[in-house]
Automatic annotation (TrEMBL):
Record-given protein name: NXNL1 protein
Residues in Thioredoxin domain copies: 1-142
Record GO cellular component, one term: mitochondrion
Tree of life domain: Eukaryota
Length: 206
């Protein structure tokens, strides 16, 4: 999958850090389903769909909902008119999203390559770059997170949910950027805080 982004730059959401595609992004995309979200914060249809996509993504990757994040990566390909509009939209979306920098001509290349003529559009790709779904907007609206299982099977992903804890932590240490590592730390702290609250309330949990 990294070959799709060879020589290109991706941005970590809400950070100025650039992702070095050949090294770091290659590890990030390995054995994962990639979503290319073509959208705009000003498009009325996108304004209706984006909250659904946000919830969809969080329910598959956020430790508040799942013990192990699903093998899923999302790259935002915007049609926003200004960099400020793109930044404002991304601030309302999950921090784990990646994005094509504003004004990068690569966005047009992706639109042509995947025949995207209108937004919102979600192109679903296998780790090798093959298309699973040309536009999964309707599927996501209809099925929610359940449709990821279909994509996982189509992509023939190796299920990593059975990794030993130390292996998972090691993978985390090799995550693509410090902001994402900091995000995991914050989520861990959030989970610990919730567990403490439940203890104080006398609830039992594993």
């Amino acid at each position: 999958m990294a070959t799709l982004f060879t020589g290109k730059v991706l941005m970590a959401n809400r950070e100025r850090d650039e992702v070095e595609t050949e090294r770091e992004l290659g590890r990030t995309l390995e054995n994962k389903v990639l979503l290319l979200y073509f959208g705009s914060g000003q498009c009325p249809r996108c304004q209706q769909f984006s909250p659904l996509l946000k919830d969809f993504f969080l329910r598959l990757t956020d430790e508040f909902y799942v013990e192990r994040a699903s093998q899923l990566v999302l790259v935002y390909v915007s049609r926003d008119e200004t960099e400020e509009q793109q930044s404002a939209f991304l601030r309302s979306m999950p921090k784990r999203w990646l994005a094509i920098p504003f004004g990068d001509a690569f966005k047009r290349e992706l639109e042509l390559r995947f025949a995207v003529s209108e937004v919102p559009a979600v192109v679903v790709l296998k780790p090798n770059g093959e298309v699973i779904a040309g536009n999964a907007v309707e599927e996501i609206q209809r099925m929610g997170p359940a449709c990821f299982r279909n994509w996982q099977e189509a992509a023939e992903l190796v299920d990593r949910n059975f990794l030993l804890a130390e292996d998972f932590d090691d993978c985390t240490r090799r995550s693509i950027t410090d902001p994402i590592r900091r995000l995991k730390y914050k989520l861990d702290k959030k989970t610990e805080a919730k567990n403490r609250e439940r203890k104080e309330e006398g609830e039992e949990f594993p």
